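Rotation project, supervised by the postdoc (A.L.). Task for the rotation student: set up a whole-complex structure prediction and record inputs and outputs verbatim in this book. Inputs entered:
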Amino acid sequence: MTDAPAVIAASAPATGLAARRGPGLAVVTGVAAVSAYGPGTGALLSGVLSGQPAFAPVQRFDVTQRRVRVAAAMPGLPDLLSEVTGAVRDACDDAGLSPSQRARTPLFLAIHGDPAMARAGRPDQPAHGPEAFTAAVAGSIGLAEQHIRCYMSACVSASSAIADAAALIARGQAERVVVAGGYLVEPDQFALFDAGRVLADDGQVRPFSAGRRGILLGDGVGAVVIESRQVARMRRAPVLIRLAGWGRSGDAYHPCLPHPEGLGLARAVVAALHRAGLAAGSLGYINAHGSGTSHSDPAETNALRLSLGDAAAEIPVSSTKSLHGQALEASGILELIVTLLAIRKGMLPVNAGFLGADEGCRLSLVLGEALATTAQFAMSLNSAFGGANTALVIGLP
Amino acid sequence: MTAAPVTSGGLTALQAAAAAAGLTVLSSASWPEEEDSEVTPLAGFIDSNFSPLVAEVAGRALRNRAGGPVQPQATAGLTAIVLVTALGDITSATRVAAVVDAGTRVPPLQFFQCVPNAVAGYLAARWHLAGPVACVSGTSAGLDVAALLIDDGDADDVLVVRADLAVNAGQRDSGAAILVTRLKPSAEGGS
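Outputs recorded:
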C-alpha cells in the first residue's frame, strides 16, 4: 500500500500535521433533506438505493431554447427560501434542539444566491443578497443572529461549510453549528450550463464510464446539526454519525478545469484521513465527486490512486450525482447526507449510467444494484471551479 | 469623478477584521486608488468588472508584499484564497437573467465567470496559490474563515479579497485585498 503521508510530503511541505485538527470530536445529531426523489431523507435513501436516476424532462420552466432539456427536479414550483427553511427546521427538530439551544446556534448556509436577486431592480438587489437570505432562514427558525455565514464557493460551498463547522467544534471555538445548503433547478444556471456545453445530451450522468457525456442538474436541499460529542452527550442527543476528518485544498491550475493529475484533491483526501486518524484501507465507501465529465473523472481517479495507493482499487466507489443530479452549491451537503444514510443502512448506492470501463477511470465502482456493506467509515468528495477540493470522512458512532 | 466606492473603507474594514482575528497583514491593496479610472480588462472574462477587479486588487496586494512581491511558482507554503463579496458578479447575473427572459442564448464565456470561484482559480493558477479556495459574504466571516484555515493547518497564509460592484449610479466598483498570516509567538519577538 502506498504510504498516504508521502503524498503530503510531496505536495504540502510547509504544513505541520500535528496542527491539523483540534482535540474535540464533531458529530451529527440532526439531518434533513429534499431532493428530486421527494421530501425527506427516507425518500432520498430509497431513491438512491433503487438505482433509478431521477432525471426527467424539465417542466419547471421553458427549455425549448436549450440544447439539453433534462434535470432531476421535484414536481411543481418549489420555493428555495421555503425549502431551505423547512430543511433547517426539520434538522433542528431531528436533533431535538430547544428554542434556547437554537438561539445560541449559528447557521452556515451554502447557496448560489437568492433566485430573485438578478431580476430585482439594481437598488433593491442588496436586499436580496445571500446574507439577507441566510438571515431570513435563521430568523424563521430562531437560530442565532450572530456569526451567520453564507458560502458561495460553487460546488464545494456546502462541504467547505461542513469542514469549517467541524473544525470550529474540534478546536472548541463553537459547540454547535447548523449547516445547510440549497439549490433548486432554475432557468439561469440551466442556461449557463447549457451554454457551456457541459450538460449530458443523452439525458444520463455516467460517472467514470466510457461514453460519459457530462453533468445534469438536480434539486438538492439539506441541513445537518453538527455539535461537539461532549455537548451531544450532555443533552443525551443520539449521534447519527461522526465527522471524523476533513480536508480542503486548491489545485492552482485553472479557473474551471481540475488538475489532470488530481494533485489538489489528493491533498484534501490525505488531510481528511490524517484528521480522522485512519489508514486508507479503513474506508469502506467513497461517494465520489464523479461529475461525469471527460476531464473531471480521470483527474479524480488519479487523485484517489495518489492519495489511497493500492486501497483505491478495493474501496467501493459511486457517484450519486448519477442518481440525484448535480446540486451545485448544495452538492456537498446532499451527498454527505446520502453517504451518511447509506452507511447507517449498510447499503451502498450504485454508480448509475455505467456503459463500460474507461481505462482512465479504473475504480471499484458499485454497479448493477446497491451493495450491502459493513463499512464503518466513508468519504464524500467534492471539487469545484477555481480548483477547490474538499474531502469529508464520516464514521458510524 | 465624484462617485464613491460601493464599499466605503473596504481595506480598513479588512484590516480591522484581520486584527480582530489575530492575524498579521503581510501586504494590502485597494481599488480605486487615486490614479485609477477603469479596471484593467482580464482576458477570458467579459462584460463585467467583477473578475477583473478581483484580479487587479489581488495582484496589487501580492506585488506589494513587504520583503518583495510574491513570486509566481513559489512553493514555500500554501496560500489560500478567500473571496468576500456581498452580491458577487451581479452584473453578469443580471445580464444572464435578461438574456434568459428574452429567450435568447447565453454567451458561453458567461458560463464559468458567473461563479466567483472562477476568478479565484485564475488567481491561484497565476500566482501558484495552492491552498483552499472559498467565497463567503461578509468581511468578518471572510477573516474568520482565513484564520480557521491557518489554525487548522490547511493554509500557511491567506489572500483575502473583497470585491463589490456598484449597484447605484452614484457609486463606483470597489475592491480591497490583504495577505494575512498568523505569526508564531517567537516570530513576534516573544510578545
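Student's summary: The domain at 4-395 of chain A is CATH 3.40.47.10 (Peroxisomal Thiolase; Chain A, domain 1).
Supervisor addendum: DSSP finds twelve helices and 16 strands in chain A.
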